[in-house]
Fold this sequence. Notes:
Layout (H helix, E strand, L loop, with lengths): L14 H5 L15 E7 L5 E7 L1 H4 L4 E6 H6 L31 E2 L5 E7 L2 H10 L1 E6 L6 H4 L15 E8 L1 H9 L3 E9 L11 E7 L4 E6 L4 H10 L9 E4 L15 H13 L3 E4 L2 H7 L6 E9 L5 E11 L29 E8 L14 H19 L3 H8 L6 E2 L5 E2 L4 H11 L5 H10 L3 E10 L7 H6 L8 E7 L5 E5 L8 H13 L6 E4 L17 H28 L6 E4 L2 E4 L5 E3 H10 L12 E6 L8 E10 L6 E11 L6 H20 L31 E5 L16 H18 L10 H12 L1
Parallel strand pairs: 1-12, 10-11, 14-15, 20-21, 27-28
Antiparallel strand pairs: 1-5, 2-4, 2-6, 3-5, 7-15, 8-13, 9-10, 9-12, 13-14, 16-17, 18-26, 19-20, 19-25, 22-23, 23-24, 26-27
Amino acid sequence: MGIEGVGARVARKEDKRFITGGGRYVDDMVVPGMKHAVFVRSPHAHAQIKKIDVKKAQAMPGVVGVLTGKELKADGIGNLICGWMIHSKDGTPMKMGAWSPLAVDKVRYVGDAVVIVVADTKGQARDAAEAVEITYKELKAVVDATKAIQAGAPQIHAESDNNLIFDWEIGDAKATDAAIKSAAHVTRMKIVNNRLVPNAMEPRAALGHYDKAEDHYTCWTTSQNPHVARLVMSAFYNVAPENKLRVIAPDVGGGFGSKIYIYPEEIVCLWASKKTGVPVKWVADRTESFLSDAHGRDHVSTVEMAFDKDNRITGFKVDTIANLGAYMSLFSSCVPTYLYATLLSGQYNIPAIHANVRTVYTNTAPVDAYRGAGRPEATYLLERTMETAARELGVSPAELRRRNFITSFPHQTPVIMNYDAGDYNASLDAAMKAADYAGFTKRRADAGKQGKLRGIGMSCYIEACGIAPSAAVGSLGAGVGLWESAEVRVNAVGTIEVLTGSHSHGQGHETTFAQLVTQRFGVPLDSVSIVHGDTDKVQMGMGTYGSRSGAVGMSAIVKALDKVEAKAKKIAAHLLEADEGDIVIENGEVKVAGTDKSLPWFQVALASYTAHNLPAGMEPGLKETAFYDPSNFTFPAGCYICEVEIDPETGTTEIIQFVAADDFGNIINPMIVEGQVHGGIAQGVGQALLEGAHYDSSGQLLTASYMDYTMPRAGDLPSFKVSTSNTPCPGNPLGIKGCGEAGAIGSPPAVINAITDALGVVDIAMPASPATVWATIRATKH
């Protein structure tokens, strides 16, 4: 390992521009003649649009255009789609309701876009937006998914009877029911996974520019996968032919899943640019983001876990109602199905599993993937149930888990997944040691003497990353393949550019991807550039989500590096008059092993382009491309332990310590991995203690600002104790598994398990705010 190569704790290259104000975000982009857009959004959760009058708005100062859904439809712009087909258990396809980028006849949630106003300044656009007169006929709304599927509930889409999108199942129902019937013990719970708002640092934004002279469109957007955005906007939304559409995702300030999708605003800004003849920029304000960004989670589940007389799990039965909001977002259907129910085995050897999932429309913002996407929901169910079962059985939560761990690999679960490698005992042992688990009883007693309630909880999570292979996900309904591409260009002076279809929005790709190249060729890190986020520069790619950039994106780079290395060795062998098998590349030199014969790296690169002395029949240049389609998911796993202290007088919960022991396989940059884990835990703790999106019965979002939606702050978090073990992934050339979502997956159940342990209760709703904890203490006393 070199000081800049694989395994080195290299500081992030990209941070210099970020911390000095040099980042280039969509809102920094300026195009000559650019105007500003504001969307008029529905104030009602459910209403018919009876009339839209834009005359006053059109006459206001600076206004360039005021456009409606009827004009958009007249120009042939298509509805937004969900790109993953799910069939109900009776074989019928999911009921996808129409979602026009601008509502035409009906609005279905507060924040539904109805009109776009384009003006010289944002202020003028805002003023004109307020002058748009829309007459609505308000309809009854429903925001609770469990009520939306009841007879007589308001009908949100004509295509979906009783608002049911699909009724889907996985696993063996008969075997699971039989296991429950014959069990020595059954733990039963109702578990709610609260709705969240992603809250990336940078709000969503879009800049659409139609060049009339070239008949060409450019869209700058806050996207996690610009190539998919281009594909969908051309193939399904009829915005522009793919060869006439360029999508650029420059620096993006966080995504967490919420920027995977194509939203109405990108489509409408591009269309409005052609319609008005000017470039059109829209940047969301924070309340607009709360209202219109895709939300996450929002499951209500009942579970039954069966044990035999030896406390081994014999069956696990789950029934889930998942709220998908007013419309089906791009990947919404796969989150509560193949990204959720397939992980219900967790780290445990469970012979029989059955899950039934019903997805439901409500008059709320659409729900889609949020950091972890289905895996946090599965882990929360499983780990809350395991902890509760241990208490019911009167055994140690750690030992109950250990007794049921999978210990032999590969392991085929009853719900599709085939785990390739892992050592769950190692993570459990590491976490328990770091947390001084054995010393907790004394710490609890000491806290009690101070009038405090102390609890400890653990969570053993597993996730599936690098969703693949493409043929498999295609057979399950995915509309796209989930491979990745890379191109490695060695320039004539030996500097190297890596063009990747992955997208970085905080993950540190410009550093870790460059470390791969430095490791391979021994060139300085600063001589390697990473290019991403531009469909005109990078060949087709699938973007970043699901912790896929390492396992899939980097593997594509490795394949391209293999080809570059092979060609460079052929050139060097020819120049040095040596056997190709004797050529080695290290420390920036190309050498003949066992001799003093060598060439500097740049000289081999230059020789490939001058082409004066190449092997017979070889093409000039040193540039290679590769596509990588994984053979299986990767399976990061770990154990988290949380210890809390609660003030019974105020209900305030303090996290005394938080331990994370993860297995991510091989690691490229330990410092970046630790940062990813820290961030994930912060979001998981936020869900457990602070965050929650709440609607009133009429569909008004009550938590549409930071005054009402509580985000975790530094004072809410302890100094995390993090460590990693390593069982390399056998399914990719780097042996890596992925780390970006782990913290958000494993932490919520650990926190809630600790709080319920401290309070001596079975369950407490997330977020376990001081008011909720205080009320639970009072209810327990009485």
